[in-house]
């Protein structure tokens, strides 16, 4: 069957070029001295220096990083409990529950963000760190559960039963027997939650306290104004980090058996 | 082994076990109820309320207002067209790529090619939009290149609907590729060979084997692409120019700059209802087409 579909191969090459041309250009431009992103090309690293000299972008990155870590931590903890609970109630009831989780992914973030803002405004919470934290956590929770639950199902319950029979408390069984077995999936879920939250513009746009700018909000404001070469530098760093994380996640959870997408 | 498992299960008292499961599901289920279900119900209620404090009683005024000036109808139509165009573009490009990934490339190349497709998932939506703007902008790389062939370097498709289309296609193509790939990878090679041996040409092999077998992936791909594309507001805002507004921009304008609760809620509800209806119709049509094919 090989080497038989030249047009399929041609479209593949075209699509990959389309996907990576813009990213490639941004990386190229991050080393271009022109402040407007125009040619001729002149090599410089000054945009990277500008980025690390403590401007607004650096501050926003730090805020987003800490915030996303907290959200990912909460999502992993709640996701572990949820997945464990889903395993205990049996496959049929668990399927109903995972439909509920999917609804949090299917409802557009635009509508969900607005709906949460209405609720927070009504309860007096308003735009606040707590509201933003809750909103982002519920949005990334499904990703964690969808990765952890299948891993949990694959675990044989015998070792856990043995540990229980030998007198270990349920918490100890979970900590010493269950968790080590599903650790790769938990790590993959945590990373996924971290990245989705770190990059989530829409939910933060509606729930962030006034005046607080996480990285997506900061980039939005900069792009609205126009071309900013230090965004290129930041984008290049983020793409490199993303590649590393994707490789890590695919090692941990995706590649081997069935994962989130296939 | 199954017996042992059942015995241990029975050994724990049934009531306590049920309570424990409930306790485990409480934080996650509670969050979904309070932060997804409750806000959506509140949104629907707000759309029927006369004023922002939920005290004015039941009214249809918000919906009447929405339809009064015709802005919603025209923007919704435009957005649905954009959603359909981007989804169609994704399907047309993603089928060959997914087929190639599943059936043509070598095992080793497949791993790296799939990792490449996933990278945009882990990259900020705003950076993807931004990188496309950099590529397309006047005097930018693309226009400088075209200028070598005599084009005006300061002219550009940026700030038109065409730019918004390209950006959305760029953002959502990976979703469709992954959904179709996961479905096509499950098709048995023997089935394709059998069809070939029985004299089915390429078109016939696609319509009677690949299409019906990849239908579940196609349907979830359409759901993942069509719904968010139709509701997008960041892309038209940043790259659509002054006439680039879509229905998402209209909904957003009632919540970001001003806080126009009743009207914005009515818009959101209508938007959700129309999108759900269109998605169901597309699903029904494709399922019908797939079933008809499989009988052949």
UniProtKB/TrEMBL annotation, chain A:
Domain ABC transmembrane type-1: residue ranges: 61-249
Keywords associated with the record: Cell membrane, Membrane, Transmembrane, Transmembrane helix, Transport
Compartments where found: Cell membrane
InterPro entries assigned: Bact_Polyamine_Transport, MetI-like, MetI-like_sf
CC annotations in GO: plasma membrane
The organism's taxonomic lineage, starting at the top: Bacteria, Bacillati, Bacillota, Clostridia, Christensenellales
Gene3D superfamilies reported for this sequence: MetI-like (1.10.3720.10)
PROSITE patterns in UniProt: ABC_TM1 (PS50928)
Family annotation (Pfam families): BPD_transp_1
Superkingdom of source: Bacteria
BP terms from Gene Ontology: transmembrane transport
The family this protein is said to belong to: Belongs to the binding-protein-dependent transport system permease family. CysTW subfamily.
Stretches that traverse the bilayer: 7-31, 60-83, 95-120, 132-152, 173-206, 231-254
PANTHER family per the UniProt record, alphabetical: PUTRESCINE TRANSPORT SYSTEM PERMEASE PROTEIN POTI (PTHR43848)
Protein name: ABC transporter permease
Protein's membrane topology: Multi-pass membrane protein
From TrEMBL, chain B:
GO CC terms: plasma membrane
Any Pfam family matching the protein: BPD_transp_1
Membrane topology: Multi-pass membrane protein
SUPFAM superfamilies: MetI-like
Top-level division of the source organism's lineage: Bacteria
Domain ABC transmembrane type-1 positions: 76-282
Any one Gene Ontology BP term: transmembrane transport
Compartments (UniProt record): Cell membrane
Gene3D superfamilies on file: MetI-like (1.10.3720.10)
Membrane-crossing segments per the record: 21-48, 80-101, 113-136, 156-184, 214-234, 265-286
Location (main, coarse): membrane
Keywords in alphabetical order: Cell membrane, Membrane, Transmembrane, Transmembrane helix, Transport
Similarity comment: family membership: Belongs to the binding-protein-dependent transport system permease family. CysTW subfamily.
PANTHER family the record matches: INNER MEMBRANE ABC TRANSPORTER PERMEASE PROTEIN YDCU-RELATED, INNER MEMBRANE ABC TRANSPORTER PERMEASE PROTEIN YDCU-RELATED-RELATED
Protein name: ABC transporter permease
Organism of this sequence: Guopingia tenuis
